What we know:
It is built from 4 helices and no strands. It is mainly alpha-helical.
Amino acid sequence: MADNPDDHQSPAYLILLNLMSKRRTWLLLFLFVYTILLSSSWNLLKSVLSWYDSTVATAPASSTGWPAIYASVALGVIFGLLSMAAALAVAVPATLVTWISVLVLLTFFGKPRKSLVVEGKKLTAEITRTVGKILIKEGNFVAAVCAVLGYFLLVRNTEKNEIKNNV
């Protein structure tokens, strides 16, 4: 008489397994992670901008360029990392579907199991490298664009405030 492996598992494990197999659980987990990510990046953004405002307020008018450069680079890094995280969340499921599809196609073409394992390892390494390179390029591009835009917006905002204060 064979024992059923489900008979020896705890009820908590079975509830967790049942809960994690639901699509809405993964959707809520996804939304929760993105809420935390956006909240922390928003708080970091506010702290960078408050640092910039306090630095510009205490610094002489001629030295407002360097704090704007530092703040814009920090903003670029924040938005670059955020875009990489968002792209990674989309890329992982798509990459897994591609990987599974290729392995299934190799199986249908009659590859033996041992060569499938070797091909699977090569495929995993190649896909991981390609996705990593694309994510880094995309993150760097977004960081550079945000840094340049942030610099011009910070300098323009500082100049408007100086003109307002002088009038």
